Amino acid sequence: MSFFNKILASIGIGGAKVDTKLEKSEYTAGEMIRGQVEIYGGSTEQQIDSIYLTVYTTFIRETDDRKHTDYAAVKHHKLNEPFKIGANETKSIPFSMELPIDTPITYGNTRVWVATGLDIKNAADPGDKDYIEVRPTNMAAAILEEVEQLGFRLRQVECEQASKRLGSRYPFIQEFEFVPTSGPFRGKLDELEVMFLAQTKEKAELLIQVDRKARGLGGLLAEAFEMDETHVRLTVMSQDVPRLNETLKGVISKYA
User: Fold this and answer.
1) pTM of the model as a whole
2) Which of 183, 191, 195, 240 has the greatest number of beta carbons closer than 10 A?
3) DSSP string covering the chain, please?
4) Residues 36, 106 share a domain
């Protein structure tokens, strides 16, 4: 192969390409993602040092009072050992990797995708991107459903930059913003925010923000200085789910 073709391959012209084919496009957080990574050789033989899969999500970062959409990785997965792919050769490599149980759900503006890259020495990375839909775990779904059963409507879901004091393992946290439309908290709260600090199959660590409705001058002043908001940490175990409605109602009532 000519030196000229090698130079072109190094800048991505006539070089190897990659295409990931997922088994499906919708997953529950914590589920296994399976598929095939297909590598197509270019016009010259190339050394592939590694194939890597990364799960990314979007989040909102605030800088100088302006909001920007950023992205962060929630999972890295190396697929193989180094190998060579010949000119015009095709290789197919099956894979399986676990989607983290705390992967954000794809609701509202939140996007999640699997990015595939080839680590090729002295060459451009011919990446590939596949968007997926992510559904909540059974535990998370049960918690969100019980909040709605208390008369709240889910208004917005967004991943926002996380404060370091929250101890999140990601630079973001997903917030579920509810408004009371019926039930015991209508007229008492402006909104209720639920955040999942950590999750396993058997346990969820929650941060609940109770935002009280302003009442009178004192309430307006409290709202102006954000003193009308109370943050409550709550641990929910799988065995707590049957009594979850009563538990949530008690916690929210205490600060409403």
Assistant:
1) 0.84
2) 195
3) --HHHHHHHHTTSS--EEEEEES-SEEETTPEEEEEEEEE--SS-EEEEEEEEEEEEEEEEEETTEEEEEEEEEEEEE----EEE-TT-EEEEEEEEEPPTTPPP--TT--EEEEEEEEETTS----EEEEEEEEPPHHHHHHHHHHHHTTEEEEEEEEEEPPGGG--SSSEEEEEEEEE-SGGGTTTEEEEEEEEEEE-SSEEEEEEEEEEPP-HHHHHHHHHTTTTEEEEEEEEEGGGGGGHHHHHHHHHHHH-
4) yes
